[in-house]
Amino acid sequence: NFRGISLLNTLSKILERVILNGLNRHLVTSQMIPKEQFGFKYGHSTTHQLSRVSKTIRNAFANKKSAGMVLLDIEKAYDSVWHEAIVYKLYRSSCPVYLVKILYSFLKHRTFRVSVNGILSNVYNIPFGVPQGS
């Protein structure tokens, strides 16, 4: 049960960067991502989040209060992303239409094939998920 790595050409990497910059700009200005979320946010990392959580726990302990935490890790999250749901959510969030169309075009009609010992498999569609590897 392995997930392939996307081998993207230079043009795809540039397009991916254009999409990312546009989405980040929209997400920041519309304040769609909660301030507590650190994953996939520019300038934030798991180290920053760990520091914030540690501070919250220390403050609770110092004030003789309790602190709780819920962690969520969705199995195969990248593999199971439904393209239409992404498009729907972006339209509903007033994301610029041109950006939604570019993203949908980037995700739709993706295919893959496998090479083993120089022999190529048939071409298969990828109806769900997002590419990783750039």
UniProtKB/TrEMBL annotation:
Keywords: Nucleotidyltransferase, RNA-directed DNA polymerase, Transferase. It comes from the Eukaryota. Residues 1-134 form the Reverse transcriptase domain. PROSITE patterns: RT_POL. InterPro entries: DNA/RNA_pol_sf (IPR043502), RT_dom (IPR000477). One of its GO terms (molecular function) is RNA-directed DNA polymerase activity. PANTHER family: REVERSE TRANSCRIPTASES. This is Putative reverse transcriptase. It comes from Culiseta annulata. The lineage of its organism: Eukaryota, Metazoa, Ecdysozoa, Arthropoda, Hexapoda.
